[in-house]
Structure formats: structure tokens, C-alpha cells
Design a protein that fits this description.
The chain is an alpha/beta fold. The chain has helices at residues 23-26, 44-60, 68-76, 79-89, 92-95, 97-108, 112-121, 156-159, 175-190, 238-250, 314-322, 336-344, 365-373; strands at residues 5-6, 13-18, 64-67, 123-124, 145-147, 160-163, 166-169, 200-203, 220-224, 227-232, 256-261, 275-279, 282-285, 296-302, 305-311, 328-331, 351-354, 357-361, 377-381, 398-402. Helix content is 31%, strand content 23%. Keywords: Arginine metabolism, Cytoplasm, Hydrolase.
Length: 405
């Protein structure tokens, strides 16, 4: 079996992909942050330092940390990969043929490090040292973006997610994030860590418009024993879930998908912001959202297609899938005000490193205390800046290798 395998949410984590926030954050301003899907403007240096603590906490737990900027830079050193990425990200449809051609030539002349920085971090017209006959640059202001920054790349969980012996390259819901997936497509195809390795690309790897079939990794929990739990949030659609399920079954990589319909609002943007798996039989949950009456379906393979049946409740469905008599649920800590604040600051979005050991923001004192009392060890990381992006340790990590249950 290839080392590229994620068999659970709680088995020993071996390798993970992170993205240290750099240039993209310097381009966030109060006037543009909302269209770039950020609620706030972060202090860039401090966010980077907090992220370093996160990465080092993982390394101290014997987890190998891969950084997106490095992987992209190393991928761009492969001429075919560089050509493909420039053609894809700087397409004639996006920029018009004249400007696209000029811009591709301009970017192609950069060294890999600088090019990776620009593709991830964006480029304003004022920074462009380029003469072009195209109408486009003449119709933009100096501070407009030629290439929009990708601050949400910080959340490596969403763009691609490894499920058992393969990966889904997720067609993202929001235009502000759709370019991210192409970076991962190039990395998984050409980077030496992945090229020629034996793994399945379930979904999202074609040059297609996936229409309504959206999926984001924050909604996908590989709960183990052949089961996958997926939240249908504001960013993941039933069409996306059914397509992914069909591909998982066709490749013999999963036996069932449990799909939960979530309320469509920002505080529970993804399932993992309101629920994460912390130990084989233990989940953290925000009870205001994760109520017993959430509509739930079980999807299973049937004659080369899928069978979909509604089930009474998601907790029972998880117990059955994992062969457990009952689940231990730890709810967000504090009184209802504190719980709401801590959920907003990603108290429920923890990253499990091995059974019963999780990484979470130190600021969520009430919830962390509850985890501790329930026998879960919390490795605390600072999140005063990182937390403003509305994502915790699970959002900011894409496991690439993890043991099963």
C-alpha cells in the first residue's frame, strides 16, 4: 500500500500539509476582505509566528509537516507542471487572449520561488512590470488585483481531502477559492512526493465545470472502518456528496457515506466547525447546531450505483458504522454565551494527532477544560490572529498519511 493513506480521523497522524500565511494576508484590507471570504484583517507577522507554533507542535508529535509554498515551488521546477499551471490559472477566458499571453510570458520568466509567491499571494496591477496592448490593464486601477490573493489557502483541509487510499480534489463553492484546487492538482500530479505513487483521484481532477457538485474538505470526516461522514453545509452540496460517494464505492475505498444536512450559516460553515472526532468513541460537538433531528442519510453501494436511505439520526448512524454501543459527546464549554463565543473561535475544530490527543486554540479555556476532564489531552496553540480567519487546527491541516482505527 502506498504511504498516501488516511484511514481515520483519530489514528496516529504521520504526514500533513499546511500553508504558512504570508503574502496573501498582506493583501487583505478592510474593503476587500469580505469578498476574499475573510471576516477580518490579520496581523501578518503574528499570524505567521502562531502558525510556526502549530507546525512545531505537530513536529514534536512526530508528524512530518509539508508546506504548500515549498511543494508548489518544487512542482513549478517541473517544466510540464509550470506550463500547465500557467495555462490553467492565466487562461485566455480569464484575461482575454492578448493579456493572458503577455502575463503568462511575464510570469514564466520568474524563478520558481517568486512565481509560487505570486500565485499564492496575488499581484496588483501596480506591481506589474509589463507592457501590453490589451484593454484590460488600461481599464483597472493600480491597486486592483491582476491575480487575486488566496488567503483561504491557509485552510488546506478544504481544497483536497484524503479519504482512505485516495484523494478528492474538491470543486469549491466560492469563486474566491476555485483557483486553489489547481495548485493541488499540479502538486499531486508532478511533485516528487506524489508523482508515480499509487493512489486514486476520486473527484475534481478533470478540466470540467462541476456545476452544482461542490465539496469542501472541512465537511468530510473519515471516521474509519470504511465509513465517511459528510456535512452538507453552505459549501458542500448533495450533488457533490453523491458524486464523491459513487467514486469511493467504485474504487472499493469506502462502504458507506453518512450525510448530514446542516443549517446554512457562517458560524457552521463546515461540519468540522461544529463537530470533530477526538478519540475512537469520542466526538466534540456544538449542541446548538448538532441537534438530534438533523436530516441524515446513509449512502451505500448498490449494483455499480448508490443506494440512498434516510436514517433516524446521525449519532446512531455513526455508532452503527463504528460498531460502538454509544458515542461519548463532549459539548462546547461554558455557559451559553461562552459556548457561542468559543464555537465561533473554533473550540470544536480540533486536530486529533493520535487517539485522545488533540491540538486546539489555547483561548478556548472553557471547552479545553471540558476536554481535559473527559480525558482528552489538548496541546494548546495561540490563535489570536489565526483564529480571525474563522478556522482552527483541523481547518488548517490536510492529513496525507494517517493510521486507521
Amino acid at each position: 500500500m502506498s504511504q498516501l493513506y488516511v484511514g481515520s480521523e483519530v489514528g496516529q497522524l504521520r504526514r500533513v500539509l499546511l500553508n504558512r500565511p504570508e503574502r496573501a494576508l498582506t493583501h487583505l484590507t478592510p474593503s476587500n476582505c469580505h469578498e476574499l471570504l475573510f471576516d477580518d484583517v490579520l496581523a501578518v507577522e503574528a499570524a505567521g509566528e502562531e502558525h510556526d507554533v502549530f507546525a512545531n507542535t505537530l513536529r514534536n508529535q512526530d508528524v512530518e509537516v509539508l508546506l504548500l509554498h515549498d511543494l508548489l515551488e518544487e512542482t513549478l521546477a517541473v517544466p510540464e507542471a509550470k506550463q500547465w499551471l500557467l495555462d490553467t490559472q492565466i487562461s485566455d477566458f480569464r484575461y482575454g487572449p492578448t493579456f493572458a499571453n503577455d502575463l503568462r510570458n511575464y510570469l514564466a520568466s520568474m524563478d520558481e520561488h517568486h512565481l509560487a509567491t505570486v500565485l499564492l499571494g496575488g499581484l496588483a496591477y501596480s506591481e506589474l512590470k509589463l507592457k501590453s496592448d490589451s484593454m484590460l490593464p488600461k481599464m483597472h486601477r493600480p491597486l486592483d488585483f491582476v491575480i487575486e490573493p488566496l488567503p483561504n489557502h491557509l485552510f488546506t483541509r478544504d481544497t483536497s481531502c484524503w479519504i482512505y487510499g485516495g484523494v478528492s480534489l474538491n470543486p469549491m463553492m466560492k469563486p474566491a477559492r476555485q483557483r486553489e484546487t489547481n495548485h493541488l492538482r499540479a502538486i499531486y500530479r508532478w511533485h516528487p512526493v506524489f508523482a508515480g505513487q499509487d493512489f486514486v483521484k476520486y473527484f475534481g481532477n478533470e478540466d470540467l465545470h462541476y456545476d452544482n457538485a461542490n465539496i469542501e474538505g472541512g465537511d468530510v470526516l473519515v471516521i474509519g472502518k470504511g465509513a465517511v461522514l459528510i456535512g452538507m453545509s453552505e459549501r458542500t452540496t448533495p450533488q457533490g456528496v453523491e458524486n464523491l460517494a459513487a467514486k469511493l464505492f467504485a474504487n472499493g475505498q469506502a462502504t458507506q457515506v453518512i450525510a448530514i444536512e446542516l443549517p446554512k450559516h457562517r458560524s457552521c460553515m463546515h461540519l468540522d466547525t461544529v463537530m470533530t472526532h477526538m478519540d475512537i468513541d469520542t466526538f466534540s460537538m456544538y449542541p446548538e447546531i448538532m441537534r438530534n433531528d438533523l436530516p441524515t442519510w446513509r449512502i451505500s453501494p448498490k449494483n455499480g450505483s448508490v443506494k440512498v436511505e434516510q436514517v433516524p439520526n446521525f449519532i446512531h448512524a455513526i455508532e452503527l458504522a463504528l460498531g460502538l454501543d454509544y458515542l461519548k459527546i463532549i459539548t462546547t464549554g461554558g455557559d451559553s454565551y461562552e459556548a457561542e463565543r468559543e464555537q465561533w473561535n473554533d473550540a470544536n475544530n480540533v486536530l486529533t494527532v493520535k487517539p485522545g490527543v488533540v491540538i486546539g486554540y489555547e483561548r478556548n479555556v472553557y471547552t479545553n477544560e471540558k476536554y481535559d476532564k473527559a480525558g482528552i489531552t489538548v496541546l494548546p496553540i495561540p490563535g489570536n490572529e489565526l483564529g480571525r480567519g474563522r478556522g482552527g487546527a483541523r481547518c488548517m491541516s490536510c492529513p496525507i498519511e494517517r493510521d486507521g482505527l
